Amino acid sequence: MPLCFPLQDQHPPAMDPPATPPKLPQPQLRERTERMEPSRSRREERLRVINTHLNLARRCHKDAAQKPKPVSIGWRGTSAVEAVGVEVELPPKGLEEAHITLLTPPALKFVADLTKQFNSEVDLMLNERVRRKVELDVTGNRPEFLVNPQAQAPDWRVDPAPRRLQDRRLDLGDVSPANTEHFVAALKCMVNGIQTDFDDGHCPTWPAQLRGLYNVFKAVHGLFPDIGDIGSLPVLMLRPRAWNMIEHNMLVDGREVPGPLFDFGLLMFHCAGRLMQAESGPFFYLSKVEGANEARLWNEIFCWAQDQLGIPRGTIKSCVLIENVLASFQMEAILYELRHHSIGLNCGIWDYSASFVNKFGHRDDFVLPDRNKYVNMQRHFLRSYMDLVVHTCHRRGAHATGGMVATMLVSKDSFLVSQVTSAKLRELMAGVDGFMVYDLRLVPVMLKLYRTFGFINQIDRVRDDVKVTPADLLEMPAGGVTLEGLKHNVAVGILFIAAWLRGQGHYVYKGAVEDSATAEISRSQVWQWIRHKATLEVSGEVITRKLVQTLIKEFVDAANTEIAPDEAARARLSVAAEIFEEVVTKRDFPEFLTTYLNQDHTFRAHQKLSC
């Protein structure tokens, strides 16, 4: 039941809990237009699983009329706000304090105004994505470097990085602040920054959003015991959700709020003032940007928010993740649009590789081979991509950072340490200024590597030797598909969906952390291999839906025995396997797995488990 109140009230009206919990709507099975209707027994089993979970769900009806806590930042606006109501979902059980602290009427007014200001621009941007995709599909053209005389002029550089962003050597990646224990441990770590993640490594359930945002609030305002002042902690590189994600739990003018505006708005409203005072922000990672027009939109959002909050323009700094192949053709223009708010660009191998299937997946000349065997930063298309990121950034005085080490250091394995060190050494030799690790146990290993270099950054190393052409960026690596690679992709995809169904955005599998980036490349490759009838290297067997169905069943049977501890886990695996099969056999490629899940009734139903 949503909480709806006019924003001019200082707090929401008290609500008495109903005598009996409201009935939750019965989920409907997804309509399947691209595949054969499953048997009655499969339909009934899936419905039984969902109903089992729904029967466990409990709605929280605590009194939400407590006086809101004062926020620490003034807001340039009137205290009298519009009479138009904003609908917000009730707090999940145990998160009443977070709900009251974060979703004050002034904060909601700020997010509502932000949404109203940029709704049309967001719609235009998303429509432009569709237009470009259709144009590529219809014409068969390949992208070319963007011609932009202003961005290509030789005499501009990004604004100088603030003191705390001059050293970008080591960040922790995929740190979902919804995981309080991991987040607090990260705050105590001797790293330069923390990718405070509401995107790839985070599952955006309502409890997770509130807990994550509240934990950031507590870190910024010194409310965690035994944690120092925010000015002495690693900088928080806040990563809001990407534009493909919607916040279902807040409506403005009857429309759901774009996920990134919800995250960015609340983070700015509650944290920007204190971060600015501590010379520690606000700093952001921007995910899944596809072109200069999207960078321009973010720049306008930054300017608007700073003006509204009385913060000097240019205080916000951002690092754009170049994780879409189309963005690699507009990197200089992306930096130009954000030149007053940019610290640089970042490379990410798996989202970037998956974007080839997203944009060119129907073309047989863009089939990616087995990622575990043939796709790595030594391949020409990825090496060219990283070289161009380094050259573009350093030419304009910006930082170029590499991707995240996903390896988990479960023991003092010298071979594993050597592998990780060698891979990152190659990136440093290419000129990157830093990178990320997930496992805190790898921090001393990486710090030891940096001590052999002795630099804070390599911005002065412009890499004028780099001459990258469109053909370099689009050259697919040679190679085939192994049975083990196919099985691995199936496992990663299913386990990621199962993780989302239990409200987690990443998990560890076979010694590596897996998040939405690895899930995207996994399900993308399986879809593409089925579509183009790829063959297995040794047996020559054609990859078909039937083969994938067999591998899915084999994996689920094995997982039920080995890693599913109870009936609930086995039920999630069953549902996850069916969703995975749907995704990899769709007639049209689903653009983002996370969007597909976030809009799906099964995931929405499972969200209610923790409410």
The CATH topology of the largest domain turns out to be: TIM Barrel
Please, what is the CATH homologous superfamily of the largest domain? Malate synthase, domain 3
- The count of DSSP E runs of length 2 or more, i.e. the number of strands, is 14
Q: How many structural domains can be distinguished in the coordinates? A: 2
Most strands sheet: 8 strands, parallel, barrel
The number of helical segments is: 21
Mean pLDDT: 88
Describe this structure in words.
The protein folds into 2 domains: 114-473, TIM Barrel (Alpha-Beta Barrel), CATH 3.20.20.360; 483-610, Malate synthase, domain III (Malate Synthase G, Chain: A, Domain 4), CATH 1.20.1220.12. It has 21 helices and 14 strands. The longest helix has 35 residues, at 105-139. The radius of gyration is 24 Å and the shape is globular. By secondary structure, it is of the alpha/beta class. β3 (170-175), α5 (180-187) and β4 (193-197) form a beta-alpha-beta unit. The strands form 3 sheets. It has an 8-stranded parallel β-barrel with strand order 3-4-5-8-9-10-11-12, surrounded by 5 helices. A 4-stranded antiparallel beta sheet has the order 1-2-6-7.
Topology:
Elements: E1 2-6, H1 40-56, E2 85-89, H2 96-102, H3 105-139, H4 149-152, E3 170-175, H5 180-187, E4 193-197, H6 206-220, E5 235-239, E6 246-252, E7 255-258, H7 259-277, E8 283-286, H8 292-309, E9 317-322, H9 331-337, E10 342-347, H10 349-360, H11 371-374, H12 380-395, E11 399-405, H13 414-430, E12 434-437, H14 443-451, H15 470-473, H16 483-501, E13 507-509, E14 512-514, H17 516-531, H18 545-562, H19 567-584, H20 593-598, H21 601-607
Parallel strand pairs: 3-4, 3-12, 4-5, 5-8, 8-9, 9-10, 10-11, 11-12
Antiparallel strand pairs: 1-2, 2-6, 6-7, 13-14
Helix pairs in contact: 1-19, 2-6, 3-7, 3-8, 5-6, 6-7, 8-9, 10-17, 16-17, 16-18, 16-19, 18-19
Region (Disordered): 1-43
GO cellular component, one term: cytoplasm
Catalytic activity: glyoxylate + acetyl-CoA + H2O = (S)-malate + CoA + H(+)
